[in-house]
Write a sequence for this structure.
């Protein structure tokens, strides 16, 4: 029981660290002047004020946005379409990591456990023995199910986004062209695929194309992960508890926290990096929006 509590605390520590970092750079991005407003010769002294409720300001809006996109609330206290590119990057990647900081209702919990199993497997490779987690041996079947569950959402989002930007119907809906318009499409499908519900308001989503595409990705994004997650739970439930030994890979210390964070960033970050590079990163480097 004590060991399980310590292992849960390690996962919680990973969530807190990621959440703090994401709030930090998103708030920094929103504290910069809006590039479109700066181009017009207007300099703000309090950060990005476009689409921001004056009672909250840019910092609290960034905090609320990261908290919303890192869970399954889908709420907003500012216009996400008006966020600066770095701010949009923070909101997008919070969902792309699977909403694990601190986690969406239901989906965040089993997603962080899937990441933990993958991290345990990698740790087992480093020490050269079959890894264990929560007293259960993690073998080939568990790793395959965890790998499948971790790839369903990224593949669904990237494939459907690629189709959307390759069709006339998909490209006609963003109100802003260029990299920001691509970010609007990517955000919409990422949000739907992660059970979130928030949106960048610049995309006209109430069309036959996006209604059908949205329904497809919501179905795949939820059930495509639930099925292998439930199968993984069933496989582990059938296994006997293995007592700890001197060779057991520790999953309740700082090294495991770092390993779990690395797995989350690699799977959630590098998988989506090409898409992110075409959206917020290009927009940030160009310092402009195409109206």
């Amino acid at each position: 029981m004590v060991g399980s509590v310590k292992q849960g605390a390690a996962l919680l520590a990973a969530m807190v660290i990621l959440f703090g970092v994401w709030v930090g750079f998103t708030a920094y991005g929103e504290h910069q002047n809006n590039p479109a407003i700066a181009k017009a010769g207007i300099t703000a002294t309090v950060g990005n004020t476009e689409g921001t409720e004056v009672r909250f300001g840019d910092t609290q809006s960034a905090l609320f946005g990261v908290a919303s996109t890192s869970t399954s609330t889908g709420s907003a206290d500012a216009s996400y379409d008006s966020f600066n590119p770095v701010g949009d990057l923070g909101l997008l990647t919070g969902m792309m990591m699977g909403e694990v900081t601190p986690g969406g209702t239901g989906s965040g919990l089993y997603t962080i456990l899937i990441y933990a199993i993958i991290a345990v497997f990698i740790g087992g490779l480093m020490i050269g023995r079959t890894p264990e987690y929560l007293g259960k041996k993690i073998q080939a079947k568990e790793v395959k199910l965890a790998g499948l569950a971790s790839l369903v959402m990224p593949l669904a989002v990237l494939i459907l986004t690629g189709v959307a930007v390759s069709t006339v119907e998909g490209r006609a809906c963003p109100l802003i062209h260029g990299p920001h318009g691509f970010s609007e499409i990517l955000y919409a499908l990422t949000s739907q695929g992660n059970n979130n519900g928030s949106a960048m308001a610049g995309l006209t989503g109430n069309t036959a194309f996006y209604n059908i595409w949205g329904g497809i990705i919501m179905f795949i994004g939820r059930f495509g992960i639930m099925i292998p997650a439930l199968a993984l739970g069933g496989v582990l439930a059938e296994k006997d508890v293995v007592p700890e030994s001197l060779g057991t890979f520790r999953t309740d210390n700082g090294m495991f926290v770092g390993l779990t964070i690395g797995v989350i960033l690699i799977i959630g970050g590098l998988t989506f990096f090409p898409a992110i590079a075409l959206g917020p990163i290009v927009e940030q480097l160009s310092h402009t929006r195409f109206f």
In short: The chain has one domain: 2-286. The first helix runs from residue 2 to 30. The chain has a mean pLDDT of 85. The radius of gyration is 20 Å.
